[in-house]
Amino acid sequence: MSVVPAEVLPGSALAVDETAAPAAAELGPRARLWPSLCAVYRAQLSRARVARIPLLFVATFQSIGIMVLMRGVVDGGAEAQAVVAGSAVLVVAFVALNLLAQYFGQLRASGGLDHYATLPVPPAAVVLGAAGAYASFTVPGTVVTAVFGCVLFGLPVAHLWVLAAVIPLAGAALAGLGAALGLLAPRPELATLLGQLGMSAALLLGVLPADRMPEAVRLARDLLPSTYGVEAFARTFGPHPDWAFVLRDLAVCGMVGVVSLAVATWAYRRAAVR
Q1: Of 70, 155, 231, 251, which residue is the least packed, with the fewest Cβ within 10 Å?
Q2: pLDDT in tens, 17-53
Q3: What is the DSSP string of the chain?
């Protein structure tokens, strides 16, 4: 008489059919960066569409008012070129640096980062999408400011097409800095203060001619991300622009933008897990 285990008997309740075991559920593919970035960009652009006109008006009116005030002090030449270039990039600084710092500061304080943390969206897409949406608002104001400044100071408008490179590169550098300030600030009030200070630095160090600044202030000016966008734009007003220097300044501005956006992405991960 042989002994057979009960679990192998066909009629036993303990019999196990391995083929009937449910297969492990497969996870869906991870969200890719580019589609996620486009989705966040469209969402941010739609959310801020109502506030577009006031933002553009304030940023543009501020820069044009500064140029009108400087017209009584600066006659022309390299100083006029610096004023026009700095005022145009100041529109980018007002939106991409100041307002983005306030937005991320309020988003962190209100718990809005928890919403993004639950979505299958890479952290870089959140930062880049919001930065791109805010920087997009600066395009009309920057162009209007540059054209008005050229007419006001009698500068040529033949090379204004270089703004197509200056706006995104300077916008990326300043937006990354603004996002990092907003995400790292412990309180939204402090984020607003840091954004205002950053915009004031862009105003004082970018609009005023560098030749009249002390050496210590010039060193601080070289640390400001928007400086290289201002320098690249100002060089194009000359009769024979040195495009090698223009490309160099744009390249530096782009590298600073990559670094600042990387820091902002790290700051987003740090703030989202707290």
Answers
A1: 251
A2: 445 444 444 444 556 777 888 888 888 777 666 655 6
A3: -----GGGSTT-TT---GGGSPPPPPPPPPPPHHHHHHHHHHHHHHHTSTTHHHHHHHHHHHHHHHHHHHHTT--STHHHHHHHHHHHHHHHIIIIIIIHHHHHHHHHHTTHHHHHHHSS--HHHHHHHHHHHHHHTHHHHHHHHHHHHHHHHT---TTGGGHHHHHHHHHHHHHHHHHHHHHH-SSHHHHHHHHHHHHHHHHHHHHS-GGGS-HHHHHHHHHSTHHHHHHHHHHTTSSS--HHHHHHHHHHHHHHHHHHHHHHHHHHHHHHT-
